[in-house]
Structure formats: structure tokens, C-alpha cells
Amino acid sequence: MNLFRGSAYSNLLSVAERAPLSIAKTHSLLVPLLQGWRVPLQEFNADELNRALGRVDPARCTLAYAQIAIDCVVLCRTSEHAELAAQAVRRLAGEGQLQQFLEYPAMLQRLADALGRIGEPGLACSLLADVAESLIAQMAADRISTEQDAEQRLGRNSGVRLTPVHIECARQCVLARSLALHQRVASQVLSVALDGLGSLVGGQRGRAFMEYNYYAGMVFAALGEADAALRAWQRVFALPARHVSAISIAAYKRRALLHVARHGTKPKLPPFFASAHARTIEGHAAAYVALVDVCCPAGVASLAPAVAKVTEMRNVLQNDENAGLARHLLHELPAHYIRRCGSVYASLHVERLAELIGFSTHPLAATRGREAVDVVGALVRYIRDMNDPGVALDESAMGVVVRFMPVRATVSALPNSALLGGGGAGAERQWMEAVQMKVAEATALRGRLEELDRHLALTKEYAVGSRDKTLSNSA
């Protein structure tokens, strides 16, 4: 007798509730049903969906429960519908078992797609973050690894692999524009190192990896974490590709703006990146390449050309949704121009510095309506806000003087530091701190190389190649 006769989910429930069957046997019956699945309801039926969800144990039959939860998401049209769908997804996140997704990885893609089309980025991001955090915790604890995944490892040894839920969570986070969600996703999802691409991502794994890092960079940039954003956008170019992707072009544009804002230098693509691809990307981002060239002159220069170029590119920046990064670039640019003056001058009157860098052309010193802005005063306030130990203000009755102090950025800069002042004790302290910093960096790099060596020795390709080489030498 069929206990589920009359239910739209009768076939699914009859398999899910076969208690005598093992989980493996249950999955062998479930997967054929799920592969050709069509939503059995024409519209959202809360009673029917509630009954179906109540019949399935998400811990024992995660795939069946996930499919019913996905149907809730697909069919929901009102806030009441969305509430029931959210409850189902949260229960899936709390009680579902990752091992069962390995039987049918497409279910994760199906879940991510459904939540991505829900129409409420904030809700979608929150639910996707619930699922992603649960997946990460289970992967980190179980360190699930198949033979196929061993070939896709990235060497971080965390056990966490990329899934469609990670990618959609990052994308919805960008769309949600919520500081709280940005902070949650950045710390709980995006900051977790990936161990591999894994078999949970279908289709083009390279594209999935690029998308994930592209959106991750946007989340970090929105939080003001420039270094993390630059690292994420750098990873977009980490995998070899036959063709140039629109993702890599968009990442190049954003990375160019943020790199100049952060470091004041021209960004470079990784040295292993194909030169033909690099030329193609630069061709599609020609305006950004020109902007970088203008913003990174050699030696002391005026801000006027850079400000004019950004103004000229206003429409391009808005169309690419990079106007916010361009404003950030303009705000940070004077700091780099001021520091460049320190490579030529030991000190300057602030009026002379404003003249050298053309600060009067910058938006911070531009006229506001009919009110003229005090250019010198604006520059003094800007230098104070820089809070740079290498740039000091000396105010006296003779006026305001900008003094360029020695910095600890590199060991190579230290010999001149001793000549510029601070005494022997100060110079010696700077030497010690810089050397200790370099030793710590070298130790960290050595540990990373040893980790990569161990990972390489365990890969199938290396083992086969080493065996063939040993046999040929012994012959």
C-alpha cells in the first residue's frame, strides 16, 4: 500500500522513507528521480510542501529534503512563501550531510541557482551563507577527498573545496550591499582557504574559480580591505586558460584602480600569464591602462593630468560600475605624489609642495560653489589624515614645513635613513626591525615551500614521473 498516494511528492517520499534500505541504496534509487526532476506543483501549496518536508529527515536523506526545499524557493511568490522556504533551507543547512551531496553534486548547483533567482539579494545571501558555513565546517572536519579531487588540490590542506554555493553567496553579497552581510561572508566564507576545486563544481571549474575570486575581491574592496581584494583579483589570473574571459577583463580594470590607489605603482599581471592574453586584456581595458600611466609618473609630478583623465573617463567608469573605486583612487593619489617628493627633497614649505603636486586641481581643493577653498589648509589637513610616519608637519612662526622622514619599508632604504637623522641608536633600531621582518618573511616562505613539496610528492603525476625517471636511470 502506498502511504503517499495523492501527494505530489509520492515517488520521492516513497524512496526517502524506506527505512530498511541503506543510505547508499536509497541514493541509487533517488538519483535517477532527481536527474529528470520537474517541480510537481503548479503553484506554491504550503500544506503540500509542509507535509513533504515533515516526512523527510534531512540528515538521513539530504538529497530528497534539498529538492523539496528548492521547490519551495522556486515556487515562492509572497513574503509568507519566502518565510517557509527560508525555514526549509536553514534546516537543510543545519542538519544536511555533505557526504550525500557527493552522490549527486548537481544538487548544490540547483540550490544555488534557485536562491540566486529569489529576487531578494539580502535574504538569498543570508541563506547561502548558512549553507556555505555548514559545508565549510563539514569539509574541514571530514577532509573528504576522492581520487578525482586529489588531482584538483590547491595545496592549502584545509579540506575545504569550492562549491556553487560559495560562488552564488559571494555574488548575492555584492548585490545585497549590506555591511553586516559583507562582514559575515568575508570572515566566515571568503577568508577560508580553499584546498581544491573539487567535484562539487560542475561545468567549467576554471570559470567557477575566476567568478568566486572576482566577487570575493568586490566584497573585500567594499569593506576597505584593499590587500585582500587585490589578492582575490590576482587569483583570477592564477589558472591557465585558452581564451581571455570577460571576468578577467573586469577583474583587471578593478585591480588596476585599487592597486594604484593602494601602492601608487603600475600593477603587473603574473609573470606566468600568457603574453598574448595580457595584450588582449590590455586592449579591452585601454582606457584603464592609459589612466594608470597618467597616475604613475616617474618622479615629482602634478596631479592635474590624473584628475583630468578620471574626469574624461567618467562615463566609462560609470558603465563599468567602477566610479566608487575611481573616487577612492582620487582620494589616495595625493599621498603617493607627496611621498614621491620625499625621494628628491628633505623638506618643503607646504605652499611649495602644493604647487609641485598641483594640489589646487584636486577635488579636495576645488572651489565649492562661490566659496574658495584654502588650498594650503586643505593640503595640511590631508597630510594630517595620511598619518604617515614618513611625512611630518613642522609648524612654526615661519610657516608650515613638510619634512620627509626615513621609513622602514625596505632594508635597502635604511643606509640613507642614518644620514637623514635620528642618531645612531635610531638607525640601529630600524635596522634590527627591518632585518627581523625579512627573517620572518623568509621563514614563512620556507614553510610554504616545504608544504608545497610535501603536496607535490603526493600527487599522482609526480609519483608516476619519478618512477619512470628512476627506472630509466637504473637501466
UniProtKB/TrEMBL annotation:
Q: Which UniProt keywords apply?
A: Cytoplasm
What is any Pfam family matched here?
Answer: COP9_hel_rpt
Which Gene Ontology cellular-component terms appear in the entry? COP9 signalosome
Quick check: keyword Cytoplasm in the entry?
yes
GO BP terms, alphabetized: ubiquitin-dependent protein catabolic process
* Keyword Metal-binding in record: no
Where does the signal sequence lie? none
Q: What is this protein called?
A: COP9 signalosome complex subunit 3
Q: Please tell me the species this chain comes from.
A: Coemansia spiralis
